[in-house]
Structure formats: C-alpha cells, structure tokens
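Kindly draft a sequence, keeping tokens residue-aligned:
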Amino acid sequence: MVFRVGLTIFGLLIIGAFVRDAQVFAQGASNGYRIDESFIGPGGNLESGSTGYSLEPGQSTVGNPGGVGESNSTNFGTQSGNTTTSDPRLVCVVNSSSINFGALSNSVTVFGTVNFSVLNYTAYGYNVSILGNPPSNGGHTLNALSSNSASVIGTEQFGMNLKDNATPNVGAEAVQVPSGSFSYGVAATNYNTADSFRFNSGETIATAPRSSGQTDYTASYIVNTSVTTPGGQYTGNQTILCTGTY
C-alpha cells in the first residue's frame, strides 16, 4: 500500500493602519501591565515590569549596537531592534512525502512515518492541519478512527499521531531546533498522546502559540485490517496545511 503526503502553506496577515509623524505622549497602561516613559529600540534606557511580564527596551550596548532584545510571557512577546527583517515568515517542509506500508495483514499492525518541519517568524504562531482521506482500493476505504483509540490488531483501523509510540513501536517526539529556548511547536490535542491514534480530515495536528524557530515533527500512521477487509492495492493522498496565526 502506497500513501502520499503533500504540502500547502497558507498565511493570513492582518495589517493595521498607521499615521506618520504623530506625536504621542500618553503612557501605555492596562489592568495587568504598564509602560512608563519607555522607548523600545536602540537608545531605550528604562525597563518596565510587573509580576507577570517584563519589557527590555533594547538599549544599545557594546556588542549590541542595534539594541536588539526580546521580551516574552506565556501569551505575548516583543522583539526590539532592527538588525533583522520585520517581514513575517512561515516555512513548512515535508521531508518524507510517501509511505509504503507493504502488505496489509489482519494479524499484525503495519505502520509508517512522515517527517515535516515548520518555523515562523514575527507572527503569533501557527497551526498545522491534515487534509485528505484514508487509503482506498477504489471500492473500499479503510475505516478512519474518528475518536482516539489504541491500535487493535484484527480490527480495521486507520489513524495517526505525532508521538513516540510503544504499541506499535513507531514515531518520535517533536524536536526543537536549535532548542526549546527558541522553538515552541507541539503536537495538538488528540494527536499528542502516545499509543492513541485518530484521523479526521481538517483537524489541527500541530501548533505553536508564538513566533517559533524550527520544530521537526514525525507523523506516525497505523493500519489494521480485519478478515472482512477487501483485498486489493490501497492508495491515498493527504495534504499538510500550515497556517500562520498573525
């Protein structure tokens, strides 16, 4: 059985209007955070902070003439300085685009993996969805797991997750590149539990809550058949859809 996975990248960008040469003297404040006379960028001197958030203004220093600095909390981040482009960027690459499951059997689980990588820049994160149908032989489509389930030998099943599984022994955890200090992609709910598989076209399988470096994912697919599963050659195509959440 041969199974192919493709790629689509979609970005949604909302741009606000601005007025040049406007003079604004009011302080920025809300119930949870306040900026007092701060200038974000080279030349800024004051740091602003609260219990839940802090802001590094990006002061020019020796070795950092551009005043580059990053401030983050769980739900928000800022990047000061202008030594890199401010253009949003979303990159999604499928590193292995096909799986050959070999001969299907009602006595063992067959499985395979697809590897893909995602990164985004100056955005509020991304979502990765899976689109398509389970493999079919023209007259019969394998039964997709619409809800989470363990692999059950002898029961017709088609499913996937993004975890390192033990039963069957397939897959790997997401790898943050260069490290977890810069990259934040994770497997989405329903696809983030080892040995639990499902497949629903259009569902989100991975996500990042903020601007993130590269995350390498492994999508693990399983196929089980029963004694009543029709014989024949099964093939299928799916698409990985990457959407920036700007």
